[in-house]
Amino acid sequence: MATQASDSKYEQLADGVLRGVGGAENVASVTHCATRLRFALKDKAKADKAAVEATRGVIAVVEAGGQFQVVVGNTVGRVYEALAAKPGVTVGAGGGQGGLLAKAIDLVTSIFTPFLWVLAATGLLKALLAVGVRIAPDFAATTTYAILFAAGDAVFQFLPVLLAVTAAKKFRANQFTAIAIAGALIYSATIAVLPGADGTTVTLQAFAGAGGQITFLGIPVVMISYLSAVIPTILAVYAQSHLERGLDRVLPEALRNFLTPLVVIAVIVPLTFLLIGPVADWVGRGLSGGVGGLWSLSPAIGGAILGGLWQVFVIFGVHWGFVPVMVQDLATQGHSVLTGPLFAAVLAQAAACFAVFLKTRNRELKEVAGPASISGFLAGITEPGIYGVTLRLKKPFVYGVIGGAVGGAIAAAGGSAAEGFVLPGAITITSTLNIGNFTLQLVGTGLAMAIAFSLTFVLGFTDLPAAAPAADEDAVDPVRVGEVPSEAVAVGAPVAGQAVPLAAVPDQVFSSGKMGAGLAVVPAEGRAHAPVAGTVLAAMPHAYGIRTDSGLEVLVHIGIDTVRLDGAHFTPRVAQGERVEAGQLLAEFDIEGIKAAGYNPITVMLVTNPGNYSVVVPEAIEDVREGDPVLDLTALTAEPATR
């Protein structure tokens, strides 16, 4: 039963997202990465971003790289499976949309995403083995270590085979022919076929390495290592796809099935050895050399840039552009200096997220921040924390960037780098044990976490209004047991206009009363005032929270979903932490501008934390002026004890 319920949850999420993007007929293709569904849409105007974000289980929606990206977190694989089962949905990568950068990102994500977790898992296995060798050095000489190391290293060494499968799918080429081509490339470095100088049989690569001259039909071959080769494999499969389509057009159907792969393999394998491989290797080494050049000028500056901006790259999806360079470095030198600063970048965001978890008074935000911080710490997956917590609150994200920059600079200054392809996290940091100064890596990462946590916790952030517990439907008397009514307090209308009950507000969160008791006003003029005297807890362009001296908390929220306007049509007149008096102007807003942008300007006032008060909404309230009493708050005092 539990499995059925879980499946139903993913089905419902997939259905909601599919409706929001305009239905299956509007989906050109859909893929996924570690935490996101990545849609290529036929008509972006048909997608309802607000509806998708409102779907239960969706963390955020990002439009970047020519894609409509839906962040759902670690369960993305299950949701993707549910989507793939929907009639009319085209799974797998499409042709990519947007400019050159967008297409490049689409290409990399399409090829690497399907086996990303396998790379991460085997990288973690190698990291754990490194810890084992540090604890017991003799372990490295055992056959047990050799078997486990083979399990962790084989996928990377034979990476061209995996790339052949996914690249063939991306380029719509024959996957088995692509595997045969990749196998031939790996064969040159693994199977002995030529007599060496001492008479023993050696591989093509070993023969060339010993000074032997390799030619094909008299043309000299520049032999490179094709183990772990990334760019040569992708380009070879790309060339294969075009040759296959050309042959399919000219070959008779009766001969096509066996002649096409025969010609393709006989042409593409030599062409790769002669041209594609050497050129691709030169390009890859050039990219790697460019990174190395930056690091040689100043590792600290390079580390600060990458450590500080890595999560910004993640937001826009351009971090995938670094993957081929990292893999190329791993293939040529066994490590990539690009990976060293990433641990500070990732764990700083996780620390900021954890600080929000401890500090926020919003229960729903706390429920997101807790699991998100754990995901960031242990698995190196920060998207749930970024979109659900730190970026949402802005300041914690900035604090994480600062911590990542400082920590990344320190780690890079020590020459730290991971030996395998790992997702940076607290567990996989052991992959940096043998490269560079591991102590500086720990210091840098620890300092990054401390900075992000401390700045978030001490300097704080504009918290989301705390939601009051839902009222007990069976409760009749708002007065709590053991307490009797005392003095009454009147709360004024924040704006002039027509008062309506919360049930009439076109937003389920407000209309359900889960955030607190109150009412709404359809504004007649664009001026919002403080309904009570107190301290401004939150001051956003569209929403203001005020706490009275007695602990009462009142929220004034102008419009529905107007947070999406990013402050447009609003002019705040108070700041967070400021003391305000009842009736003082909080903000001015353009009613017609808000409507023209497609949003409802109805203004909601809620008592989010009644404290020692019961809340009564008077009946028969219609037209109100700013400051008219619209809520009656009755202070409660403890009933005298019976002697």
Automatic annotation (TrEMBL):
Classification via CDD domains: PTS_IIB_glc
PROSITE patterns recorded: PTS_EIIA_TYPE_1, PTS_EIIA_TYPE_1_HIS, PTS_EIIB_TYPE_1, PTS_EIIB_TYPE_1_CYS, PTS_EIIC_TYPE_1
Active site: C33
Domain called PTS EIIB type-1: residue spans: 11-93
Domain PTS EIIA type-1 residues, every copy: 507-609
Membrane topology of this protein: Multi-pass membrane protein
Residue ranges annotated for the PTS EIIC type-1 domain, each copy included: 106-473
Location within or outside the cell: Cell membrane
Domain of life: Bacteria
Record keywords: Cell membrane, Kinase, Membrane, Phosphotransferase system, Sugar transport, Transferase, Transmembrane, Transmembrane helix, Transport
Segments traversing the membrane: 111-133, 145-164, 176-194, 214-238, 258-280, 300-325, 337-358, 370-390, 397-418, 438-461
GO cellular-component term (any): plasma membrane
An annotated Gene Ontology molecular function: kinase activity
Keyword Zinc-finger recorded: no
InterPro entries: Dup_hybrid_motif, Glu_permease_IIB, PTrfase_EIIB_Cys, PTS_EIIA_1_perm, PTS_EIIC, PTS_EIIC_1, PTS_IIABC_b_glu, PTS_IIB_1
Biological process annotations from GO: phosphoenolpyruvate-dependent sugar phosphotransferase system; trehalose transport
Name of the featured protein: PTS system, beta-glucosides-specific IIC component
Biological source species: Geodermatophilus africanus
